[in-house]
């Protein structure tokens, strides 16, 4: 690929991601329906980068005339699971809809905020500060300090947030390029950014802090386990409880130029990639030990049976969990793609890369 | 024990947390204990040396001053009350219950320092609003909420009761769902940097 082709590919990827939207069909919860017939659901196209509470001004007109008097405390659920408002809409969709559902049917509530399950949200301000917070953390991870964020002018800050609210990629890049948060190791994206910003160098001056690249990439990984032995994703059970999702906020250290998506997932979830023969060996030692101890208590198993049982157990445990899919911005990227490219092009506006991983777990065999 | 820039490794955090809770027990025998909550063990999720976090739950703080406006709120609601407002709503505005706090000290992989999280709630489990949390902070510190600077607190772990109060005193709250950065660099005297990660106005203060 020529430099121009790479440049085009990078921008194209970003354009697709920024244009990404989830069609939502939002139903008012049964308990809040006060009219016959019940109101039609609201149909909204939600930005992948957005957050559900930001849609409230669009949703309210559909239902406000029907609600009982009182204070509105808006929250959403998907098949009974209250949705965490600080997770971007696109990530919620990728994580909770194993087989993408279009439109995505979710339920809105205006009362009865589950304060014991969801942290309070006071509208756009809460979402904005959560976003800025995440941006600071990402800046710290990439540069080793947050000076570039703390030193942002009021107008830059307002423009940045507006670009996220309205989904304006060019406005966003205008502000974010000043922050110098490109991830190191993606030499193609880095080169194209630096060649286009040469004109800005004069402006960028004394106040700009030269980034000290730490080589760390901000990642939020959401792990969903599917226990059944299924072939088709649509058959997997829905998530009814956030305890079933593991969330890991862990920076990835990209070592060298050939660090791929595969390497990154392996660094985050090493147990899933452990050498199967070594697991087998360890398990076998443990199982044999157990069997020998229990032998004294009961005379059930002889030595040969012990060896057989333990190898069977070890065999099933080493295949206990395997990765079913890795989903970023609604796509399943090839695992050989350089991770730095993935980070620079598929990240959210707060510079975090959100990765959804589905793993399949076999039920342990009970002997 | 730690690197020159003040950061800790995950393992150093586990060791320091242990030492911290022991010291707390020694010097603050009248206060509830911190407990260590180990990371859940799941065969396929490796928490990258994150062995656990410190937890201190259901702490009831002494109130610094009584709010008169609580009564006013009740009166206002009564005046506008119609048949559809149920008593549960009145109770929520009333704020007559005790304020409970859960504190967690967690190791941040991003910042490589301990982070103090707290959750404030009333007796029925419902989270406290920002204005109610502010009531638990001494009056002279409330005015500092509008500024965003970072504050340096040095405290010997001997005067038990005041430690918790001092901790809250210097906390700046920008919104509900708070986030702090705390760094314990020496065990005998806890040197705690508490700084807001949320600024209502982005001033020149830098985070380090």
Name some characteristics of this structure.
heterodimer; A: 367 residues; alpha+beta; 13 helices; 11 strands; B: 208 residues; 4-stranded antiparallel β-sheet; 3-stranded antiparallel β-sheet; 6 helices; 27% helix; globular; disordered C terminus
Quick structural overview:
Chain A is α+β, with helices and mostly antiparallel strands.
- Write down the overall geometry of chain B: globular
Total number of strands of chain B:
7
Most extensive interface: A-B, 45 and 35 residues
Which value, in Å, is the CA radius of gyration of chain B? 19 Å
- Name the assembly state: heterodimer
* H/E element sequence of chain B: HEEHHEEHHEHEE
Proportion of beta-strand residues of chain B: 15-25%
| Count, helices of chain A | 13
Low-confidence stretches of chain A: 195-212, 277-281, 294-318
For the largest beta-sheet of chain B, the strand count, sense and barrel status come to: 4 strands, antiparallel
The Cα radius of gyration of chain A reads 25 Å
Model description:
The complex is a heterodimer of chains A (367) and B (208). With 367 residues, chain A is of the alpha+beta class. Chain A has helices at residues 3-19, 56-63, 89-96, 124-143, 147-150, 154-166, 169-179, 187-196, 201-204, 261-268, 276-297, 303-318, 339-346, and strands at residues 21-28, 42-47, 75-78, 81-82, 104-109, 216-217, 219-226, 245-249, 252-253, 321-327, 353-361. In chain A, helix 6 runs antiparallel to helix 7 and helix 11 (276-297) runs antiparallel to helix 12. The model of chain A is unreliable at 195-212, 277-281 and 294-318 (pLDDT under 50). Chain B is globular, with a radius of gyration of 19 Å. In chain B, the strands form 2 sheets. A 4-stranded antiparallel sheet of chain B has the order 1-2-3-4, with helices on one face. A 3-stranded antiparallel sheet of chain B has the order 5-7-6, covered by helices on one side. Chain B has 6 helices and 7 strands; from the N terminus they run αββααββααβαββ. Chain B has 208 residues and is of the alpha+beta class. Residues 64-95 and 145-208 of chain B have low confidence and may be disordered. At the A-B interface, helix 4, helix 5 and strand 8 of A face loops of B.
């Amino acid at each position: 690929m020529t430099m121009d082709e790479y440049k085009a590919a990078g921008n194209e990827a970003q354009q697709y991601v920024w244009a990404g939207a989830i069609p939502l069909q939002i139903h008012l919860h049964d308990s809040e329906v006060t009219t016959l017939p019940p109101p039609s659901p609201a149909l909204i196209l939600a930005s992948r980068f957005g957050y559900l509470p930001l849609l409230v001004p669009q949703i309210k007109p559909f239902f406000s005339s029907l609600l009982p008097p009182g204070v509105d405390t808006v929250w959403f659920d998907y098949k009974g699971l209250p949705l965490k408002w600080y997770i971007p809409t696109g990530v919620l969709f990728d994580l909770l809809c194993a087989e993408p559902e279009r439109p995505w049917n979710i339920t809105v509530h205006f009362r009865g905020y589950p304060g014991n399950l969801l942290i309070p949200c006071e509208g756009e301000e809460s979402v904005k500060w959560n976003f800025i917070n995440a941006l600071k953390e990402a800046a710290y991870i990439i540069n080793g300090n947050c000076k570039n964020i703390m030193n942002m002018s009021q107008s830059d800050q307002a423009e940045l947030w507006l670009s996220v609210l309205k989904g304006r990629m060019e406005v966003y890049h205008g502000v974010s390029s000043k922050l110098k948060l490109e991830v190191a190791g993606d030499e193609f994206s880095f080169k194209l950014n630096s060649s286009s910003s040469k004109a800005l160098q004069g402006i960028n001056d004394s106040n700009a802090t030269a980034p000290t690249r730490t080589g760390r990439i901000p990642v939020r990984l959401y792990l969903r386990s599917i226990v059944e032995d299924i072939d088709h994703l649509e058959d997997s059970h829905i998530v009814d409880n956030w305890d079933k999702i593991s969330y890991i906020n862990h920076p990835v250290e990209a070592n060298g130029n050939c660090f791929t998506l595969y390497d990154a997932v392996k660094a985050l979830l090493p147990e899933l990639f452990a050498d199967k023969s070594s697991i087998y060996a360890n398990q076998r030692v443990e199982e044999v030990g157990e069997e020998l101890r229990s032998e004294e208590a009961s005379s059930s198993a002889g030595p040969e049976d012990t060896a057989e049982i333990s190898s069977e157990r070890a065999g099933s445990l080493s295949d206990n969990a395997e990765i079913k899919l890795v989903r970023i911005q609604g796509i399943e990227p090839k695992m050989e793609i350089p991770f730095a490219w993935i980070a620079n092009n598929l990240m959210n506006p707060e510079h975090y890369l959100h990765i959804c991983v589905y793993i399949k777990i076999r039920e342990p065999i009970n002997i | 024990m730690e690197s020159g820039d003040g950061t800790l490794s995950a393992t150093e955090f586990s060791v320091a947390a242990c030492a911290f809770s022991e010291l707390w027990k020694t010097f603050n025998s009248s206060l509830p204990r911190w407990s260590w909550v180990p990371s859940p063990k799941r065969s396929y999720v490796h928490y990258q040396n994150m062995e656990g976090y410190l937890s201190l739950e259901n702490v009831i703080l002494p109130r610094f001053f009584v709010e008169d406006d609580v009564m006013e709120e009740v009166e206002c609601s009564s005046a506008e009350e119609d048949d559809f407002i149920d008593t549960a709503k009145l109770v929520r505005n009333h704020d007559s219950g005790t304020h409970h706090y859960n504190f967690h000290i967690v190791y941040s992989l991003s910042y490589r320092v301990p982070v103090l999280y707290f959750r404030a709630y009333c007796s029925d489990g419902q989270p406290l609003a920002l204005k109610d949390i502010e009531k638990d902070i001494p009056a002279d510190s409330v005015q500092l909420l509008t500024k965003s600077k970072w504050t340096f607190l040095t405290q010997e772990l001997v005067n038990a009761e005041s430690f918790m109060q001092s901790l809250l005193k210097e906390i700046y709250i920008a919104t509900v769902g708070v986030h702090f950065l705390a760094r314990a660099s020496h065990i005998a005297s806890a040197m705690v940097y508490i700084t807001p990660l949320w600024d209502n106005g982005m001033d020149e203060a830098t985070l380090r």
